[in-house]
Amino acid sequence: MLWKRLYGDNIWAQCSEELEGLNKDFRKMLGEHAEFKTLNLKDILTASDGTKKLEDGLVIETVLIPCERGRNTVCISSQVGCAMNCRFCYTGR
Predict the structure, then answer these.
(1) How far apart are the first and last CA of the chain?
(2) What is the DSSP track for 34-62?
(3) Which cofactors, if any, are listed as required (predicted)?
(4) Residue 59's domain spans which residues?
(5) Are 26 and 55 in a shared domain?
(6) pLDDT tens digits for 44-64?
(7) Residues 70 and 26 in one domain
(8) Structural domains of the chain, count
């Protein structure tokens, strides 16, 4: 339910008061302990195979990997310089 209230139906909540449908006490707790920030995209790097690396320059790096079957895979690292060392991703190298 929280995911749906944060991102579903193009809501993109900016504060806990915008999370309609959630328990009042839960919304209050979120307002006290969670930050609602929007990412500011700094750069998009596109590889020859259509893979795109999106980064904000500070907090996260995201890789969008297109699939021939018409779907996408998204890898979101929790930090710039993720150490998972996935074969398809340059971040860990």
Answers:
(1) 36
(2) ---------EEEE-TTS-EEEE-SSS-EE
(3) [4Fe-4S] cluster
(4) 39-93
(5) no
(6) 888 888 888 877 777 677 778
(7) no
(8) 2
Backbone angles phi, psi at 63, to 5 degrees: -120, 125
48 shares its domain with 8: no
Q: In terms of domains, do 85 and 50 share one?
A: yes
Residue 22 burial by Cβ neighbours in a 10 Å radius (0-12, 13-18, 19+): middle
pTM above 0.90, yes or no: no
Q: Are 72 and 64 in contact (CB under 8 A)?
A: yes
Residue type, 7: Y
Answer yes or no: is pLDDT of 93 > 60.
no
